[in-house]
Amino acid sequence: MKIAFSKPTRNDERQRELVAAFRACGYDGLQLKGNQYSAYLDDPPRIFADYPELEGAISGLIASLSLDDAGEGRLRKVIRFAQPAAADLVIVVLGSGREGLNRDGLASIAARVAELAREAEDIGVKLSLHNHADNPLMHVEDLSVFFEQAGDVPSGLTVDTAHLVKSGISDIAGVIRRFADSIDNFHVKDIRDGEFAVLGEGSIDFGPVFAAIRDIGYDGWVSADEESGSEMGEALTKCYRVLTRGLGL
Predict the structure, then answer these.
(1) What would the CATH number be for the domain defined by 2-247?
(2) Full-model pTM
(3) Across the 249 residues of the chain, what is the mean pLDDT of every consecutive 10-residue run?
(4) Measured between alpha carbons, how far is 92 from 64 in angstroms, rounded to an integer?
(5) How distant, in Å, are the alpha carbons of 29, 61, 123 from that of 86?
(6) What are the extents of the domains in the chain?
């Protein structure tokens, strides 16, 4: 397994702090939020000129968007950026709402994603779909329909632990075992009273979660997705300690 970190940054100073510190804390890579790479979409080499520490370290590009014409156009730009940026995954958060979505609607979304996933595969880029509260991939049934319709399309699943809880799903380990063949990324995130918390300080019992990750023989990226708003150094250190102890690394 490889350990990554992801955290929003509100300005260039905080982003430079993140990029400068992640390796020293032991992480293998970063999964970048949209605002952390969007300025470089039309000029990929410039991100390494500005942040040389990112060479070989971009494990994922997180893209939150709707699959309308504008959203698909944006996703295609991210896919084209991912190839020269050597990003392992483009992690797609479907930005449209869940309300009123039925099986046919999910099948239609799966078909659109399949087309984009094949385009990505043609240039060596992998799409990973992210479960998310109040979005199309919110419930276990949503995930089942999506991957059933997707068939052998080269897209995977990013499991976000806190968003499973926000969606009313308590058996995170059960989801991991059920979708083991599709999972290619984890966002390990804690939550308490509906608010994201520093990993290990929320209400999620990660013992069964880490056991399930080990049991399925997973060997991909596991990212601490830190969205609690805590101080950078503290978050990097605490999250790394929880991940490595829990996964036996």
Answers:
(1) 3.20.20.150
(2) 0.95
(3) 97 96 97 98 96 97 93 96 97 85 88 92 96 93 87 86 97 97 97 96 97 97 96 96 96
(4) 6
(5) 12, 10, 11
(6) 2-247
Residue 168 burial by Cβ neighbours in a 10 Å radius (0-12, 13-18, 19+): exposed
The position carrying tokens 């290619």 is 184
DSSP per-residue letters across the chain: -EEEEE---SSHHHHHHHHHHTTTTT-SEEEE-HHHHGGGTT-THHHHHH-GGGTTTEEEEEEEE-SSHHHHHHHHHHHHHHHHHT-SEEEEEE-S--TT--HHHHHHHHHHHHHHHHHHHHTT-EEEEE--TTSSS-SHHHHHHHHHHHTT-SEEEEEEHHHHHHTT---HHHHHHHTTTTEEEEEE-EEETTEEE-TTSSS--HHHHHHHHHHTT--SEEEEE--S---HHHHHHHHHHHHHHHHT-
**How far is C-alpha 42 from the chain's CA centre?**
23
